[in-house]
Amino acid sequence: MSHSKKCEVRGVLVEIRDIRPDDAERLVAFHAGLSAETKSRRFFAPHPVLSLDEVQRFTRVDGEDRVALVVVEGEAIVAVGRYDRSIERSHDAEVAFVVTDRRQGEGLGSLLLAALIDLARRHSITRFTADTLTINTAMMRVFRHSGFELTTGYDHGVIHVEFPIAAQKPA
């Protein structure tokens, strides 16, 4: 099932769409343009370049158990979000996203999370999990403002987050 949506974010037209194998070069350029700090927050360690295997894995998804979306501005990727279904718990998926430094704080992470939730629900996923560094306050802010009830745990500088993504009942 293909996902594509155009919207305006802070006066700039962007498209949120499925990642494609032909995004490989754009993904490498996106990663290269991230600051060392942003790369470390996403990968939990210095990660200067994506390996060929990573590029292949990140751009070739099945659209159900492994989903990845990109936010594209013009021809450039400015954000990436993904989920991977848990092998052990088939109704759970790990979610992650990263936004280019110059566009952080503009709501792209929240847009990606909402789109990923919509797709996950269509594939019988009922809970998202994520691990994030305690210093990654921006990612935690996205989760806290999502409207879902979070369960968190802490271990050695990492926050483990879980939240049900079933449709919210009206108040």
Q: How would you describe what is shown here?
A:
The longest helix is centred in the C-terminal third of the chain and has 15 residues, at 108-122. 29% of the residues lie in helices and 34% in strands. It has 171 residues and is of the alpha+beta class. Strands 1-2-3-4-5-6-8-7 form an eight-stranded mixed sheet, with helices on both faces. It has helices at residues 24-33, 36-43, 52-59, 108-122, 137-144, and strands spanning 4-9, 12-18, 66-73, 76-85, 92-99, 127-133, 151-155, 158-164. The model has no long low-confidence stretch (mean pLDDT 92).
Q: What key attributes describe this structure?
A:
alpha+beta; single chain; 171 residues; 8-stranded mixed beta sheet; globular; 34% strand
Let me know the largest β-sheet: 8 strands, mixed
Distance between the termini: 31 Å
Strand content bin:
25-35%
Question: What structural category do the secondary elements indicate?
Answer: alpha+beta
Count of helices? 5
- Spans of at least 5 consecutive residues with low confidence: none
SSE pattern: EEHHHEEEHEHEE
Number of strands: 8
Mean pLDDT: 92
Query: Using only CA atoms, what is the Rg?
Result: 15 Å
Strand order of the biggest β-sheet: 1-2-3-4-5-6-8-7
Shape: globular
Q: How much helix is in the residues?
A: 25-40%
Topology:
Blueprint: E1 4-9, E2 12-18, H1 24-33, H2 36-43, H3 52-59, E3 66-73, E4 76-85, E5 92-99, H4 108-122, E6 127-133, H5 137-144, E7 151-155, E8 158-164
